[in-house]
Amino acid sequence: MQRVAIPAEVAADVLFRSDRTCCVCRDRNRKVEIHHLDENPRNNEMGNLIVLCKDCHSDAHTTHAFARNLNLPLLRKYNESWQDIVRLRIAPGGLAAEELEYRSQVLLDLHLAPYRWKNAYMDLYPGQFRDSVAWVSDGWEYLIENSKHTFTQENWDRYKRLFSAIGPAVADEIERLVTTYGDALRPRVKVQILRTAQHLRVMRLAYSQLPEIAKQVPENQNLIFERQFTQVLETLMALSRLADAERKAIEPEHSAPGAILGACAIDA
Length: 268
Fold this sequence. Notes:
two-stranded antiparallel sheet, mainly alpha, 12 helices
């Protein structure tokens, strides 16, 4: 597909909104590029353009199993949060603005941690699951409603890593956020983190015992197998959405998007 050059004034506005910084890694020392969310190089609408460094740009085009998988809904979340933080930086506020930026970043990390499990699940699911979910809000409810599984030894082996490795890794990651950045999190968020981590570890044990359970209740084995996935998805959705709601709640009071996103003189 033939590329259409991004108009200079559009590129300048996109770069300004992101403070010339990758919205994913947020390393100000990296050179950046403008990425088309829909991967259509002719679509230069503002809502389709985000700023990424070369490494994150490469990750955004990588979809093979167990890759970082910066898919469409994830990129939108990173971009939305980063633009909120940039607005906080520019708006008056001094230390108060810095504190909000800190809290916002921690809550974003917490919001996105469950995506590690969800993205790995979509990679393993047969067919075009990923393409379908990419266009459905944040995808959680779609996955819960449409995840259909038949219990076989092959299917159990296929998804084993989700429960034996990725689930516990997510548990470790969210607990690390509490330990390291607990001052940025309200008590109800900490409680939800602890419950989520505990549930992920319980599900690891439950999944390991599933073949034996399936032998005992063969008439219900598909239902039991399917429930392993929906329970984890429901738990991760609750944590991710709570963190996102907390992040959004602290920002509107201190950011005025329309007031600071005017013209800029940054070259594309």
